Amino acid sequence: MQNKPAYGIDSVDHALQLAAILQQEGALRVTDAAERLGVARSTAHRLLAMLVYRGFAEQNVDRHYLAGPILRLPAAAEPVAELRRLALPHLQALSAWTTETVNLVVVVEEMARFVATVEGTQVLRVGNREGRMLPAHLASGGRAVLATRSEEEVHALYSVRDSTVLDLDALLKDLRRVRRQGFAINDQGTEIGVTAIGQAVRGPSSEVKTAVSIAMPTARYRRDRLVEWVQRLAATVKRIEQGIESTTLP
């Protein structure tokens, strides 16, 4: 028997209720959510918006809310807490050098999960993405990971998805370029005004699931600095790989 805490937080309780309803019952309209919780429609809308922001919900073309990737996808197979602890000092060093935001990403099926973020020090900067999920084929780190897989594996992954979401032939062509150059660039593919550079992190396992990315306002992205950024990114990835090799991480 689980009793409600004496000092429960109603907004948290309502958000968790909505997440459970989405996972167990399926699509939900804002008016349905408001009725289920006994709150105003505006309150239900704000709660659902936060669930979307954190990946617990998403909205379809009919404006219904559905369970988001965090509720649909299996937990990351990587030991994320240990991976994050190992990588964090290297992410901090890269962020200090670039003054830009740096992320550690783990790819689960077709989604890129941000498991660590070190924000840049400049006033105009990309914010904390920790806990967020983005489509792997759009995120720089996600594409860097996908490029380590064979075209047959990528085709098998996306052929069962909604074919209207992406052009699979164009994705495969892009991944060939990423494979040749060793890094991926996301130029405003996920957010207007944000550009990111990502590189995969290889471990003892044959399947690569992790990447590091540098994210910056597009206004500060300069092609003449790309080689410099990629070199620093590659050095950071190498240090993380060496740390993984010296631990029990699979």
Structure in words:
With 250 residues, the chain is of the alpha+beta class. It folds into two domains: 10-72, Orthogonal Bundle (Arc Repressor Mutant, subunit A); 80-245, Beta-Lactamase (2-Layer Sandwich), CATH 3.30.450.40. It has nine helices and eight strands. A six-stranded antiparallel beta sheet has the order 5-4-3-8-7-6.
Q: Order of strands in the sheet with the most strands?
A: 5-4-3-8-7-6
Structural Rg: 20 Å
Order of helices and strands: HHHEEHHEEEHHHEEEH
Helical amount: 40-55%
**Integer average pLDDT:** 88
Oligomer: single chain
| Approximate strand percentage | 15-25%
Number of beta-strand segments? 8
Task: Name the features.
alpha+beta; Arc Repressor Mutant, subunit A; 250 residues
Itemize the secondary structure elements and their pairings.
Elements: H1 10-25, H2 30-37, H3 41-53, E1 57-59, E2 65-67, H4 69-72, H5 80-98, E3 101-108, E4 111-118, E5 133-135, H6 140-146, H7 151-159, H8 168-181, E6 184-187, E7 194-201, E8 210-217, H9 226-245
Antiparallel strand pairs: 1-2, 3-4, 3-8, 4-5, 6-7, 7-8
Helix pairs in contact: 1-3, 2-3, 5-9
Task: Provide a concise account of the structure shown.
By secondary structure, the protein is α+β, with helices and mostly antiparallel strands. The chain folds into two domains: 10-72, Winged helix-like DNA-binding domain superfamily/Winged helix DNA-binding domain (Arc Repressor Mutant, subunit A); 80-245, GAF domain (Beta-Lactamase, 2-Layer Sandwich), CATH 3.30.450. Helices cover 44% and strands 18% of the residues.
